[in-house]
Each structure stands twice: as C-alpha cells, then as structure tokens.
Specification:
Layout lengths: L7 H8 L3 H9 L6 H14 L5 H7 L5 E5 L8 H16 L3 E4 L7 H5 L4 E5 L7 H6 L5 E4 L11 E4 L2 H14 L5 E6 L4 H17 L4 E5 L5 H14 L5 E4 L5 H10 L20 E2 L4 E2 L38 E4 L4 H4 L6 E4 L2 H16 L7 E4 L3 E3 L9
Length: 390
C-alpha cells in the first residue's frame, strides 16, 4: 500500500480505533490518551499515511497565522534575518500573521492548534525539533530539503547549492587558482551536505584536489580566521579559499593579511572578469526537483585540465606568501563591505523567504499541490577578492 492510497480509515482499522480518534491523534487535538496517540502515529507512519492537507484545512478553523522555525544560529546571521523579513512580508499579503517559533519547539500538536501552516528553514537531520514540526498536522514547507527520517514536508523551496559552489570553483580556477580550498559547514542540513559533497565531486571531475576544512555551520570571523591560519600553515600551496558560513569572510581576509598573502587585485574591474551578476541559478516551479537550474555555471574545461590549458594535476602551486583568492558561499554586508570586497553567491534571502511563504500560502489556498518543489535562483557576484594577483 503506497502513501497515496492510505486513508484515515486504513489507519483506524490497523490501530483498532475509530476514524475520529485517528484524526484527533494525528492533529494533536481531542481527548486522546497519550498511549493511544503514540500508537496511532506509529501505525500511520508504518503504513505511510500522508494527510490530505486541503481537506484537513477545510475541517479546521483558520487561525490566521503561520509559524516560522529557523536554525538556532539564526539570530546572529544576516541571511536568516533577511529571509524572515521576506517571509513575513509575503504572508501578510495573504492576511496571515507570522509566528516565530523557539528553536527548540517540538510540540507539534500544540503548535498545530495555533497556526495554519509552518515554514521550517534549513532543517537539520539531527534537530530533534524537526520531526515534531513535520508531523504537526498542518501543511509544512521547508526551505531546503529535509534529509532526516521523519515524514516529508508538504512542499519545499530549494537552491541548487551544488551548482553555486561549482560556479565559485570554476571562477577561481579561471582566475589562476591551482589549489582551491573550502571552509565547509558542519551539520546535516541539505546546504552543508551538498557543499561538502560537491567539493569532492568537482575535484574528481577536474583532476584538482579541493582541500576541505570543516568549520561550524555559523562560524564567526574569528573561527574562520583560525581555520584559515591552520589551513595555510599546513597547506601553503593553497591559493584560493572559499568560505561557506555567512559573515565569516572577514576572518579569512584577516588570516591572509597576517600571513602576508595578498588577496585578489587592487579592486574594481580586472582583466577577464565577468560582469557582476553574470552567473545565475535558474528557477523551476513544479513537482520534479531533478532539473538543473537554468544558468548553472557551465564548465567547458576537459577533465584534469586547468582553464588556462595547463594540466591541473601535480601542480606545486604558489609558494608561501603568494597571492590568495577569496570567495564566499553566502553574500551579505560582510562580503560587500570587506576590503577588498569579496566575490560571493547571493542567495537573495529576502526573496527566498518570500518564495517559501508563497508556496505555503499557495498550498493553504489550494493553488499548489502538496509535494510541490520550487527552485530558487542565486546570483554569483564577482568582486576584487578574486582578481588575478599576478
């Protein structure tokens, strides 16, 4: 029996209770004993039951609000604050208030009684709060995919993070890098997982070993500086550092300055640079998440060859004290205001928050089917930090 054919009646029969008891147990409402509620939920999960969100919404009174769950680190990162503002703005256009949930919120049943739907942003497979939110009995839209074992969301808005890191790696090698490195985020979010995997797959495809160092998901500039110092001390031939965490790029620049490594060019335009914003990730609206975003940065370089035509394998790289290219996987005030300004992927967080809230509103309003996946566009902003250093 597939998840699309399982009904409340099927669950009721398997659990030995009434259909109304199953409905109350799964929605966290009614006077249902905790043991019965747990048994019903276990049976529903075993059978693969997926609630009909449209029918469920008709059965329950609207609260006029939706909930927003952000990672615990969100309060000190520009990215999530901008995302939240975009989500709030879009929800209000449909007359819905936005309730910010505590990072540890896991009482799905109680939350479901206060909101019509939920946005869960960058869900970690290891976050104990997420399964309860996904099973809260209301439509749930995730920002990025959820890689954990719990029931999947009603919909998702995703970025092609593999394509954005590929664009950065292609860009730094096109501007002279032979030994790129990635300060990769820890954790089990889809974003962190994709970046770590892409560093390996890109390196194998191009015959270039991408040096990988893992840093906290929300690494501070000080943590990024320490990681970069250790990286360059251990691997002095590294000539490009791509840092993943939002706001951490200034730490990489400080480490480079302390070690006498010149970063990029003198600023402004530079020979061979693509105009800012040339490389873009495209948007796909539909149920098939497998398509490659339009405008993903192409690589026409033969495997194992540097874009300049020089074989990339066994390259000794730059000597200690040579130039260093610096880029970031997340754009923001820290990258735009740095000296020199840092090349970065603009994930357009306010627009991303709007897109997540829009999909949830569309599902609540019957304008989008459950299981819809929409892809969100990114832009590669090229700046002086990846100018050829000579």
């Amino acid at each position: 029996m597939t998840s699309r054919t399982v009904t409340l009646l099927d669950v009721a029969r398997a659990a030995g209770v009434s259909k109304s008891t199953v409905s109350d147990a799964l929605q966290g409402s009614g006077r249902v004993a905790e043991a019965t509620r747990d048994r019903v939920r276990a049976v529903a999960e075993q059978l693969g039951y997926r609630p009909n969100s449209a029918a469920r919404r008709l059965r329950r009174a609207s609260t006029g609000a939706v909930g927003l769950h952000l990672p615990a680190t969100a309060t000190r990162l520009d990215y999530y604050m901008n995302l939240a503002f975009g989500a709030v703005e879009r929800a209000q256009e449909d007359g819905l208030d936005m309730v910010l949930l505590a990072p540890s919120a896991a009482a799905g049943g109680r939350i479901a009684s206060r909101v019509d739907g939920l946005l869960v942003i960058d869900p970690e497979a290891g976050d104990s709060a997420v399964p309860g939110l996904l099973e809260a009995g209301v439509p749930v839209v995730t920002g990025e995919r959820y890689l954990g074992p719990a029931t999947g969301p009603s919909g998702a808005v995703v970025c092609d993070n593999a394509a954005s890191l590929t664009a950065l790696l292609d860009h730094v090698t096109e501007h002279g890098a032979r030994r790129p490195a990635l300060l990769a985020p820890s954790g089990s979010s889809a974003w962190a997982t994709a970046l770590r995997a892409t560093a390996g797959s890109w390196g194998r495809a191009h015959g270039v070993a991408v040096t990988l160092r893992t840093v906290p998901f929300a690494a501070t500039p000080a943590e990024a500086e320490a990681a970069t110092r250790e990286l360059l001390a251990a691997e002095p031939a590294v000539d490009a550092v791509i840092c993943a965490p939002d706001g951490s790029a200034p730490g990489v620049l400080r480490a480079a300055a302390a070690l006498g490594r010149k970063v990029g060019g003198s600023g402004g335009t530079y020979p061979g640079a693509a105009p800012t914003g040339t490389h873009r990730g495209g948007v796909l609206d539909g149920n098939d998440p497998s398509g490659t975003p339009t405008g993903a940065h192409p690589s026409g370089t033969p495997t194992g060859t540097h874009p300049s035509g020089v074989p990339a394998t066994n390259d000794p790289g730059a000597p200690p004290g040579g130039g260093l290219l610096v880029a970031s996987c997340v754009d923001g005030t820290a990258t735009r205001g740095a000296q020199p300004p840092v090349t970065a992927v603009d994930l357009r967080p306010a627009a991303y928050g709007r897109a997540c809230a829009e999909l949830l509103c569309d599902i609540l309003g019957g304008r989008a089917a459950p299981d819809t996946v929409r892809l969100h566009a990114w832009t590669l902003e090229t700046r002086a930090s990846t100018a050829s250093t000579g």
